[in-house]
Amino acid sequence: MTGPLYSLGRFCSRHHWTVIVAWIVLAVGVALAGKAAGEQTSDNLTLPGTGSTKAQDLLQDNLPSQAYGTNPVVLKTKSGTLDDSKNKPAVDDTVSSLKKTSGVSKAISPLSQEGSAALSKDKKIGYISVTLKEGPADLSDDDANKIIDGEQPARDAGLTVATGGYLGKAVSRTDTESSEAIGLAAAVVILLFAFGTATAMALPLVTALFGLVVALSTIKLLGHVVDVPSVTPTLATMIGLGVGIDYSLFIVTRHKLQLRDGMEVQESVARSTATAGGAVFFAGGTVVIALVSLVAAHIPLVGTMGYTSAVAVLVAVLAATTLLPALLGALGLRINSLRVKLGRTHPDDHRPHGWARWARGVANRPWRSVVASVVILAVLSIPVLNLELGSSDNGELPKNTTARQAFDLIDDGFGPGANGPLLVSARLGSAAKPDQNQLNKIDQQQKQLDQQQQSLEAQGASPQQAQQQVSSQQQKLDQQKKQAESPATDPKLTNLEDAIKKTPGVKSVSPATVDKHGTVAVYTAIPTTAPSDPKTEDLVNDLRDDVIPKATKGEDMTVYVGGQTAGYIDLAARIADKLPRMIAIVVGLSMILLLLAFRSVVLPLKAAVANLLSVGAAYGVVTFVFQEGHGASALGLDGPIAIVSYVPLLMFAILFGLSMDYEVFLLSQIEEHHEESEDTRQAVIDGLATTGRVITSAALIMVCVFSSFVLSGNAVVKQFGVGLAVAIAIDATIVRCLFVPAAMSLLGESCWWLPRWMGRALPRISVEGAEYFAARDAKARAASH
Fold it and tell me: Of 131, 228, 269, 781, which has the most beta carbons under 10 Å away?
């Protein structure tokens, strides 16, 4: 890639205004298209082959209104009860308003007989069960807000109103603008220290922001084609901002050094794009491959998060190798204007003596350095032994969001399990039929009632008087008969209902709802524990493995346990099953790339070990902070929370890719110095001394960007922020400045070992193009003579 990148850098530098205008047009055009299309995200869990997805598919085909459950619009009265003369009209008006709202297919009042279970015992809290025409994958922000507007009568009456379910979640997304602003502010300070000029400082920020606008707008458009999880734009912002600034930092640093040595501006831009830009291209490609490889997990939600996040990295690489060279060409020597001195010395006057001393100290005591780094990483990794994959719930959202408020109100009025109902769906081999025994008993009771009426008439009562005396009994009997005539009274359905109801951990079970053909039924089971509670997972497994098989033994029916809670449990199980394989795939691909780049078998193995140690330490810290709750309150959480199942998998792919950035930049310099001195130990010292300052600056920017997202109200984003920040900090310090140089000093010349047969088979690839420029410079010298 050296030749094409050199030509690309030279072209962009020469035609800088054309390239800059093209990027402005691209950014504005994609941003306007994204704004016009609107944001469409979905946390819909589809896991082919799992019980939750089979339940959802069965309901979508036969009882579509039941497929995604209902969305509770929770009402709480400040005085009196919801059914008194003061509050009842407001409840009724709200139900009517919601029914008239487009997008709502059904709204059941807690004051009706059908919805009586949705009214708390003290009648102060109740919820309207709202069934939407659209599932979470199709519900847009605008549609959700229109439905929320239908709740206005209750608010006008002074009732407390909060919306739960996927409707409430759609309007409860937390803003990240403050996190982005803090991350950018930290980057400004670090870049000023790194470059010493305000002009150079602005270049990485401008490049990263242009790339981020294009990437986020592209992801927004993709949301109308595929199910993009709601956390993806925030994750893409974290990654895109971090790598966008870092990639530009490496290229600008190389350019400034070359200008200081007297190189002409356009030649310097072209060479920086080909050398540091080559490392950027290689490192960015590694991150993209790591993220896209998540598709191999065959988990739609995770795969989509992977390749949509990869869009941010891909655009960052394109911006760093096209827009940045154009900006450098436009600035020319003015890149050194607006000098700022924040430390004792200016960066342009800096020489890497401190890093050289550090590198020499590590190389002189390699065993001590290796042991110290491994011990530190091992200690940090210890909590990962207790890592349990779980799910998040609306109880982890900020208290000012409507979804969190609905969660708390339902918890107060109905218990924690009401926030995570299970949808138990059944497919029957033959159509359900009313229980004939029950109908016969009702017929007998009807005959007895008729006889009683006749007896009253015989005693002298008029037919009207006799009928009036038995009217209440008749109404009750008519109601029983109507219920008994429902297919839901089929013994195989009622037996299953009773078995579920008696299961420890189940608070209540609704009677079966049967489709018009009588072949599909669904129950709503309310656990006694919260959706994210491990006991709820035990309940789901108990129902699937023991209770349901026993209750349906000998019956021609297939039963699945679904609902969002069961879906997250299935997701955690699937990820736990796939995680080792995905780790192997990502590590394997990364080792192949390093093998091609550095033509060594040992260096990829060393990199894999180092990166696995740093990722393990990051997992340990995340487990310690979130699952065990140490310092959780400092992060704005109420206490320990579950590690969301897909966080470790995404973290691994992201971190393994990002850690390769620093690995590539460091090893490229070590390789270059080794070719000059043929002394691995000295090459390690010179390579670390050369890259120490820039890698530390780049890592510090990444840590600040990731850490700033801890301020987000979304607990999942907090987990990503802490995990990524800790891992990058560990990678850039303990791994890159201690373990790697010490290990390479111990291995010596064996670092570069490659079997001869493999050397003949492998293509020759130079990350920073040293051979290309050596040949080019030699040709230029020969031509001058």
Answer: 269
Nearest-CA neighbor of 352 among 645, 730, 737?
737
Nearest to 612 by CA among 585, 593, 587: 587
Identify whether the C-beta of residue 202 lies closer than 8 Å to the C-beta of residue 426: no
Residue 442: the pLDDT is 77
Give Cβ neighbours of residue 153 (< 8 Å, ≥ 6 apart). 90, 93, 94, 97
Residue 158 CA to its chain's centroid (Å) = 37
Q: Parallel, antiparallel, or unpaired: how do β-strands 643-644 and 389-390 relate?
A: parallel
DSSP-derived 3-state class of residue 670? helix
**CA 753 from chain center: how many Å?**
40
Q: State how far the alpha carbon of 746 is from the alpha carbons of 100, 334, 665, 681, 751, in Å.
A: 75, 45, 21, 8, 9
The residues, any chain, with a CB within 8 Å of residue 625's CB and separated by 6 or more, are 631, 632, 635, 722
CA angle 187, 183, 308 (to 5 degrees): 110
CB count in 10 Å sphere of residue 377: 23
- From CA 576, how far away is CA 158, in angstroms rounded? 47
Distance CA 320, CA 208 (A): 8
Nearest Cα neighbor of 289 from 272, 306, 277, 274 is 306
b/e map 752-771, b = 16+ CB within 10 Å: bebeeeeeeeeeebbbbbbe
* Count, residues in the chain: 785
DSSP 174: P
Tens of pLDDT, residue by residue over 575-588, are: 888 888 888 887 88
d(CA 462, CA 453): 10
Q: pLDDT tens, 711-723?
A: 887 888 889 989 9
Domains and CATH numbers, the chain: 2-37+174-389+569-784 (1.20.1640.10), 69-134+140-171 (3.30.70.600), 411-568 (no CATH)
Kindly report the CA angle at 109 between 505 and 565, in degrees rounded to 5? 30
Confidence of residue 624 (pLDDT cuts 50, 70, 90): very high
Nearest-angstrom CA–CA distance, 27 and 217 = 9
C-alpha radius of gyration, the chain, whole number: 33
Question: For residue range 332-383, what is the model confidence (pLDDT) as tens digits?
Answer: 888 888 777 665 555 555 555 577 888 888 888 889 989 999 999 999 999 9
Cα 342 to its chain centre, rounded Å, is 38
* CB contact at 8 A, 335 and 328: yes
3-state class (DSSP) for residue 661: helix
For residue 357, the SS3 value is helix
Separation CA 388–CA 627 (nearest Å): 8
Cα distances (Å, whole numbers) of residue 244 to 146, 188, 705: 37, 14, 11
- CB within 8 Å of 142: residues ≥ 6 apart: 38
The whole-angstrom separation of Cα 427 and Cα 559 is: 6
Give me the residues paired with residue 163 across strands: 73
- HSE of 631, CA atoms in CB hemisphere, 13 A: 9
Tokens of 258: 């070359």
Q: What is the pLDDT of residue 345?
A: 55
Report the run of H or E that residue 454 belongs to, with start and end: helix 436-458
* More confident of the two residues 197 and 97: 97
